[in-house]
Amino acid sequence: MNVSEAISLRHSYRGRYRPSKVPREDLVSIMKAGLAAPSGCNMQTTSLIAVDDPETLKRLRAVITPPVCETAPAMICVLTQRINAYRDHCYAVQDYSAAIENMLLAMTELGYSSCWIEGHITDEDRIGAQMAVILGVPEDYELVCFLPVGIAETSPVPPKKKEFEKRAWFNYFHENR
Length: 177
Fold this sequence. Notes:
alpha+beta
């Protein structure tokens, strides 16, 4: 599969997963893809924790309310450090976003499905912080996202996208409604 194929085949999947274990070497490949992403001023603010232990997954799922991705046999938790870089700007959000997209594409290439789950765990109930405690994450890191990893029980349904011509132009902005 080439990069263009992975981009067009990648879709968020929120359904049930097959119980097949995700091999560690696949989790390593996925995380390496994430850590290869660009990072503002090379501050490398993104770190990752792969979780494939059934007992740890059970403990994490117990704090995720409402429940999502309960049947995924593995997950990758995305951590960030809010470190200022160029002219006191922090690029942590851009850094972990690039890492997440790389991992989603790597998962697609390997035949896995996933979903970027961030808002669900970073709002006022601070589920990400509860997950971080379970994983022993130091206080200077924030758990901002998790990606379930597994083989989908059903085929992911691609979302309807707006036409190219309504979102991309050459040389100047041209809105065609």
